[in-house]
Amino acid sequence: NAMRAIVFVVAVCVGALAFADSVTVVMEDRITKLDVDQAPTSLVVFANSLGRHSDGRLEWFRASRETDQENELSACREEVREMLVSHLNPADWVGDDHVNHREKLIELIDSLQATGQVTEYGRIDALRLKTDGFVDRRLRDGDTIRIRTDELREIFVWNVRDGFVAKPHAPNKFAYRYAGSTLTDRVIRGDYAYAISPAGAVQLLGIATHNQSNQVIEPGTLLFFPPPGFGRSEQDVFGCIAQALSYQDISTFEPKRQWRD
Question: Any idea of the CA torsion for 236, 182, 216, 54, to the nearest 10 degrees?
Fold first, then answer.
């Protein structure tokens, strides 16, 4: 599905530039500039101005977050380089290729970007903004709000063998079912997966026989399956990678599509 988006950018123009403080509205191939005094001042005011696009999903970006995210990506990279190899559990040494797995994790981190997306307030849409005052935040100069109206019909997985893979979403399918053959092929450690929602919320879900989660996986979710060779999947280094994945646009990775395992 082609993505249709509206982007509201609150920008400050300095000195004798052609525009004073302004809001840039981008909708597909149309670009409009509005005086900043006409711009929405908060997320709730913004939601009230959406009109026919009020059912879209909102993504909020703040330029000042990019520095923190760049530091986070650097920290993740160093943690992966320093991970100790573990052979205490069969899940780590059966079929283990920890040198290649470490390289794949570093390649993944190197492909990620500091986007500035704000994710800590969870799902942001017009309905929630109108009913949950906690979510309302004042917009600043430089902020970007993107409205996503593309329909989510897939979930995405990442593992060291296949990279990013898109699979059709099924409402009765749990995280361990989306792992497919990677469980039996020992491509993943097989104890936990990180589920990153389209809004950027991160959850740790059990996928082993003894801890299988029955958490519903919503369309658009990314499931990150840590590899074997380095110990348990809930350790901080894998949580760091999952957090970095939470502010990525999965559509930019051109995942392979897999219709059956």
Answer: 80
